[in-house]
Amino acid sequence: MKIIFMGTPDFAVPSLRRIASDPEIEIAAVVTQPDRERGRGQKVQFSAVKKTALDLELPVLQSDNVNKEAFLDKLRAFQVDFVVVVAFGQKLSEELLDLPKEGCINLHASLLPEYRGSSPIHRAIIDGRKITGNTTMYMGPGWDDGDIIYQQEIKIKRDDTVGDLHDRLAEEGSELLIKTLKDIKKGTAPRISQDEDKATFAYKIDKSLGEIDWSNSAEDIYNLVRGVNPWPGAYTHLKGDRIKIWQVEISDQQSDKEAGLILKADNNKILVQSGEGVIAIKKLQPAGAKKLSVSDFLNGYDLEPGQKFR
């Protein structure tokens, strides 16, 4: 079979590599977002998918709007069976959806109709879920509302960060995608409409999501810290300084002090009162510094019980 692959970030890379390794599949072209200026030096950088495609010696196409007629003409010329979309980042027009013979197939990192949108992995951890998964679907005109083909459940481990879960979903999803394409081609793949009444949404996130509200429960704070690691990162403030919090545990210590109050600071952990329960901070990062253990942090930062995170 012949496909066009559309994707941009790291999540799409395992799928691209897995498809490229399959002798039954020909990748006619890889479509990804335009190169962007990133980082402090604002250097132009390729997307993760473009880097991988070039390593695999696959043809790469880029456009800030894949729905323009001139770009659609380029895609039509390939006469593909499928357009495969994994975390691409642009909405596809009906003209593009109708372009491949067998349809546009999407891999989405949730058990749809749960967590439609751009941040399903973050939200699953922040919400304290124990199970998430991947869905392959026929793409429709809306956001992640197309007919479901296959789903696979993935357990969320107690200490998973969003980075850990992201990588596991990406790898497992690549195999689900291969099965999907081959079964559609054989005529054995199911097609199941989504239940709109059960739809939930995981909208695009920004850095503000990582701000810790110490009036929340210790469980909620624990999930937030995991759910924004490595991006955008959890943070709080102490004496006007912004401090990122990278690793915490829920302490078995009992206290009814004011939320945000530092109860103890020693070489192993910083105990902080939450709205319900106590959080033990294990790894943190002052502004302009690297990530530090509590021991290293306390060597250079005057922290005492009675001070308060805000």
UniProtKB/TrEMBL annotation:
The keyword Heme does not apply. Residues 1-180 form the Formyl transferase N-terminal domain. GO terms for cellular component: cytosol. Its EC number is 2.1.2.9. It catalyses: L-methionyl-tRNA(fMet) + (6R)-10-formyltetrahydrofolate = N-formyl-L-methionyl-tRNA(fMet) + (6S)-5,6,7,8-tetrahydrofolate + H(+). Transmembrane segments: none annotated. Residues 204-301 form the Formyl transferase C-terminal domain. NCBIfam families: fmt. Belongs to the Fmt family. This is Methionyl-tRNA formyltransferase. It comes from Halanaerobium hydrogeniformans (Halanaerobium sp. (strain sapolanicus)). The lineage of its organism: Bacteria, Bacillati, Bacillota, Clostridia, Halanaerobiales.
